[in-house]
Structures
1.
Amino acid sequence: MKLIAHRGWSEGSGENTLAAFARAAADPRISGIEIDVLRDATGALLVAHDKPHGDAPVLTLNAALGYLAGTALELFVELKQPGIAAAVIERLVAAGVAEHSVVFAFADVARRLPWREARPVRLGAILLYPWTMHRFIAAHRPDVILLGWDERRKPWSRLAFRAWWSVFPLARVTRRAGTPVVVGIIRRASDLHWLSRRNIYAAIADMDVLDGTQGARTPQF
């Protein structure tokens, strides 16, 4: 199971920055990073989870890829808006990182990805409800499926996820679908250990929070 750093390293101060990417690139536990991309009012593609306000510093996608092209990090690029997939994929190809990139979004945006065109990058979708997974796979043939929970905003979602996938084993689902599964957002070492036994492709984690939990530093996955 690969370990992917959420928003470059961790949600919060310093997320989606070159400093976060450098920290991930230097950590032997980390195989890749997840970043967010949106388009601002001027048409520029930015690496940001939310639209910047005022004079807040912003990182352009071009600047981010200029740095990331020199690393071995796998890139998970979440699109925060519809209508930007073609431009983002074009930048990934131009930067020479397409082969180790995944472009994905929540299902409402992901349905508009270029599923029927040639795929220089892998395409994926975040599916909130596991009972919709097979229908989405049949319709779009994604290269990656992303599942998970939001413990900070919906505390119950973590327990619901673990309960569901204890009854319907993730390993069986991934074998049947033939599609790699990525799970996030991990904030506890115990969840990381639980997932490591579920035959998933990768886990996306908030590294600052994870490193503060008991047992987080023990294994390398």
2.
Amino acid sequence: MTQTQSVITAAKQAANMAATLPPQLRNALSARAEERLPFTIRIAGDEEALCKAVDIRRAAYGRHLPELAQKMVAAEAVDLAQGVIVLLAESKLDGSSLGTMRIQTNRFQPLALEQSVDLPEWLRGRRLAEATRLGVADGQIGKLVKGLLFKAYFQYCFEHDIDWMVITARSPLHRQYAAMLFEDVFPGRGFIPMRHVGNLPHRVMALPVATVEPRWKAINHPLFHLLFELNHPDMNLTLPPPAASRARLERARALTETHAEQSEI
């Protein structure tokens, strides 16, 4: 294939990808300034990508929660379940892993945090997406990656008609989410032990997707420009093809069975 043919092919692929976006989002993106990043963000749609996500997850948790990090030696069954995606940020320079985040919707099963709490009435029956297992590289690049992973989280929720973004946050990280206008789901209970995060005390916090843009604009939030005024072509949230999804589900079932066998030993 010649260089010209490669450019044409890439342009067609980009056009096809854009055509799959909702009209509202497609129009908004076309009006934004374009910014290129020193890394890419994509959905980990194969085993190699998922292993890279697990590696950076373990390394990041190892800096702050080493005991929990020791258990992150492989993908978890929930990483491969229906309604779940794992994001992976990779350096353009050398392909190294720079960050990851898992997003789970409640379309097929309860959120991970529901192992520990019963959600209040105002969240029941709503479309929810919980972000977990956030981990980024150390240093300045990690801060940039973290901001873009949050943008990917928001964009995924927006594209999939999610009503509320939901997270659990330990101290002092809960302050970062409060600054993003996440509200405390259980204001009278404080920090609650979470089974899916090693029983460590976390606050449960939520943010309505539809209000993020107008509320952030009203207060001139420092992340508003990043989320709503810039287009990042290096962020690709295209879902894996159905065949890959079926393979993921089969592996998830195998992982679940393996974990169950180990718990009986």
